């Protein structure tokens, strides 16, 4: 994987002083992008486009993720908060616009249509997801499944480009890696005892908590001490570590069983940061 340089290529589009000074951006979709690059770079006819296709897909994903960070309401009166919100909207539009520009100039018009359809599907899934949240009809398992489904849409759109030997492998490995990515981010949220509805911990607690505890979780102003007590009672962080460990074991078993040992080694190397994370003393204690 020494030839992989998509994050460096993306920096010229992402790292603008104005954006970095006034607002935050989402994390670069590293696992999904490396996976796409790895699969495409092994393609008999598309290998020469592996960098371009991986780059534009990562930029579109950054655009979608940046728009997701924009607050639903526009009630922020303070100048700094208002500027941050405006820049997120503009940055998301800009990242998405680069995808059209790069592909059209390279003559890949058909791919623009394919990725555009995937964007529409991702947005449709998000709307359904948010409606379930609003109606309090979401389970903790559904939260993970639907988050993974939304995040894989752009990358799944390349299924038709994959060669026969890896055609069925692509969506399965993509979803397992993405689930590990989601669980890693949920662990970070849980360690801050995040109470918002966009966390697995919230929906896990809402499924099991008493009426009084659910009422507290839905209150506009929360008692941090009480919230932390509930978080610990339902072992949110512990269970997330265990879920990540289980998902990683499932992924490693799959990769070890591949007929192509070379591909298996490449994909295992992509998952090494997750394996190292799970081997830290803190993670081992929770597992």
Task: Sketch the topology as an H/E string, one letter per element.
Answer: HHHHHHHHHHHHHHH
**Helix-strand makeup class:** mainly alpha
Q: What do we call the CATH topology of the largest domain?
A: Four Helix Bundle (Hemerythrin (Met), subunit A)
Supply the CATH architecture of the largest domain: Up-down Bundle
Tally the beta strands.
Answer: 0
Largest beta-sheet details: none
* Number of individual domains: 2
User: Given this structure, which CATH class of the largest domain is correct?
Assistant: Mainly Alpha
Helical percentage: over 70%
Tell me the Rg in angstroms: 20 Å
The mean pLDDT is: 88
Morphology call:
globular
In terms of per-residue confidence, which ranges show pLDDT below 50 for 5 or more consecutive residues? none
Question: What is the count of DSSP helices, taking H or I runs of 4+ residues?
Answer: 15
Strand coverage percent: under 5%
Instruction: Give the terminus-to-terminus CA distance.
Output: 30 Å
Describe the structure.
- It comes from Paenibacillus piri.
- InterPro entries: HEPPP_synth_su1.
- This is Heptaprenyl diphosphate synthase.
- There is one protein chain.
- This protein has 287 residues and is an all-alpha fold.
- The protein has two domains: 1-163, Four Helix Bundle (Hemerythrin (Met), subunit A) (Up-down Bundle), CATH 1.20.120; 168-287, no CATH class.
- The protein contains 15 helices and no strands.
- 31% of the residues are buried.
